[in-house]
Write a structure and sequence with these properties.
Distance between the termini of chain B: 45 Å
Radius of gyration of chain B: 19 Å
Strand order of the largest sheet of chain A: 6-7-8-3-9-10
Chains: A alpha/beta (255), B mainly alpha (287), C mainly alpha (342)
Oligomer: heterotrimer
Strand order of the largest sheet of chain B: 1-2
Helix content of chain A: 40-55%
Number of helices of chain B: 11
Order of helices and strands of chain B: HHHHEEHHHHHHH
Strand content of chain B: under 5%
Number of strands of chain B: 2
Largest sheet of chain A: 6 strands, mixed
Strand content of chain A: 15-25%
Radius of gyration of chain A: 19 Å
CATH topology of the largest domain in chain A: Rossmann fold
Structural class of chain A: alpha/beta
CATH architecture of the largest domain in chain A: 3-Layer(aba) Sandwich
Helix content of chain B: over 70%
Number of domains of chain A: 2
Order of helices and strands of chain A: EEEHEEHEHHHHEHEHEEHHH
CATH superfamily of the largest domain in chain A: P-loop containing nucleotide triphosphate hydrolases
CATH class of the largest domain in chain A: Alpha Beta
Largest interface: A-C, 54 and 43 residues
Structural class of chain B: mainly alpha
Distance between the termini of chain A: 32 Å
Amino acid sequence: MLKVENLTKMFGGLAAVHDVSVEFEARGINAIIGPNGAGKSTFFNLISGVHKPTSGRILIDGQDVSRMRCDQVARLGVGRTFQTTHLFEQATVLDNLIVGHRLRTRSGLWDVLVNSRRLQREERECRDKARAALDFVGLAHLENRVVLDISQEERKRVAFALALATEPKLVLLDEPAAGVNPEETEGLARLIRKMAEHGLTVCLIEHKMDMIMGLADKIMVLNYGEKIAEGTPAEIKADPTVIEAYLGSDHDAAA
Amino acid sequence: MNLLFQQVLNGLTLGSIYGLVALGLTLVYGILHIPNFAHGALYMVGAFASYYFMTDMGLHYWLAMLLSGVVVAALAVLSERLVFHPLRNAPPIHDKIAAIGILLFLEAVIQMLWGSDFRRMASPYNGILNFDGLIIPEQRLLIIVGAFTLMLALHLFLRRTMLGSTIIAMAQSREGAFLVGIDANRVAMLTFAISGMLAAFAATLYAPINLVYPAMGHLVIMKAFVIIVLGGMGSIPGAILGGMILGFAESFGGFYLSSDYKDIIAFSLLVVILSFRPTGLFAKGAH
Amino acid sequence: MHRLASLLSGRGSRLFLLACALVFPLLAKSEYQVYVMASAFIWAIAVYGLNIITGYCGQLNLAHGGFFAIGAYALAILTADHGWNFWPAFVAAALVAAAVGALVGLVSLRLKEHFFAIFTLCVGFIIYLLIDKWEELTHGAVGIRGIAAPDGLGLVDFSQTVPFYYLALAFLVLAIWFAGRLAASLLGRTFMAIRNGDALAQSLGIDLMRNKLLAFVLSTTYAGVAGALYASMIRFVGPEEANPNHTFDMITYLLVGGFGTLFGPLAGTVGIVWITQSLQFLEDYRMIIFGPLIVVLVIFMPRGVVGTFLGWKLRKDTEAARAKGPRAGAKVAPAKEANTNA
């Protein structure tokens, strides 16, 4: 599904990501871990088209996306969430989500001027899609609430729903469980599993080890921009390189 | 030869003034990431303060300049405390609008007190030096020497003193500065004070060969923005170098092309630069 | 109180507002008042334009007054110097503002936040300088006289104040109608997504450049239309039209009314124009009050009069909805509690 070949990104003279090759299977949950500054976020930004790779290729279902703009990649079916969720706080949850399906619509200025049938139909579609996504993340009852009034964990779920409304094949989740308590983390993990069960390929960056170990089908470990290991959670736990380079150097993350 | 020399002298004079104003602007941007649209108004207030101290209170030029520096520095600090500090976590559009509010207020106050007439500021240095046919008006020499002295003083302050190094540290990394225990509020106030003072000094130096009026800050602030975009937002050497580049471009452009359009040179430069380098000429990171 | 709120934002209130505007000339004490109101309407049209790029799309455009002046000068030059009829010249003026907007937008919209604001500030100034210096085209500081009044096609005489008032009102209604339709549409939602952040918008598959450019061109077209109407009302244009202070005025109107709201531009513009009028002695020094007002609003009431009202109303509505559906409320509560424990 996602195939990365010899991916390298240089900033100035420094390699943030260096010669990383990896393949993620469809419908799987894939985690990227590594100490701070290991290049995880850069890796995400490369896949989603925020940064252009210095060298190497990124293939999604066989299509080379390494030179595409962010919005083009999104249209190909890559959805993502960010570490901090920027929602429009003064609007309702549903209002925040409707634009999520915009990329699958074609209405332009002319449609707005004449209030065309197409515009009306597409607006209905966007609304339905937003409701469906909200229902998927378990927040259907919140659709008319103002974002300002909902909890941190609910905001995370709304951000998931926004990414899902784009109808992605692959979702990139950047620290989805940051800033939520253990019970809520468990709930988010269940939601992520549900995404995979519904046919999505999930790729996440996370620091919460117990969550990752219980959730991921496959883990890739980055350190100083290089891939030092990949495998199942059990393999990663037993890998001496990982223990030395990562777990050994960062007790907090291992705890 | 003499004509060419005059243009060089002219370029140096303009470049010095622009550099000083741009320095204050770039310092504030470097620390707080605010494009302070009110900076030109501070420059203008600086000129009027000096004018007041000289004509109404009969103080000497240098003393007037010093007092004006203090007044404008206080004003700048006040604007930081009352306006920019409360807005530090607001959406990015807010501090810019607030800066415009300050600008409008200061201009209106000055206009109410002095009217919108053009005024001349006398300077004790009206003489003309003649070096074997090369003519240098004293005030221009004063501007160039004064500006370079101020730049050197600023450089020494930032590099050689504890207080100055906190500004550098915070400009490089807010989080880092916070971790080593630098008081961000104090640095912000200090930066605004320096920027205000530089603006007042620049205005007082330049006013005797120019005019004093409430709208005098408009062109200067915009050129200062062009300079810091040219030199890299937040870069100190960039501001000085950019000031000189612009000063010379205007001086020679105004002489060889058209003096009517010399003010447009700066903005055309900006358009060209930003068309090819959307983050400025010497931008460091992708910010 | 709540009933009053829904009354104020419903369809009925819009009709009421329109009715007030229609009878205003009959109730006004003098023709001068009608004239002031017409000019307020024209400025409001321009502010609606500013609201599209700055309010909805989140890009602080500091050249807006410049585009207003471009519209005014285009109409002036075409009718006074080239003898064009009013309506073709009017359409041309809007197109010129749109075209210049497209050119400026192509360069400036690639710039982020600060750079965009700085760049447009300079563009505004370039427009001012060009108008002031390019005497062959603009007659420089002398300005242009003899601008055609809107052509009534033999039916109405728009050089009279009251007919012109209704013309300005018609354009204002059109401007609000389109802004309202835009804001409620997918396109408007796309603009607002960009305001929320470039990165997030792009991750939703939104082409930033295309949408920002569209918003920008729409806004400059509004400014051009307003400028052309203004020139045909005053029948004279001078470089003062391009003074960057007009941009700052419009930002003040928008801020007072409320960024990104449908009725903010109208409330802010008409409100402040009348306050300024009633404080005539302040004319030159109005910024002594406006300046601090801008600062205070941006700190304490950044959503303006209309935005604050709508926010209050939205909260009321959702509270009312929650009170009606206790089940939904009960479902929400535990999650909230858990969060405060975290």
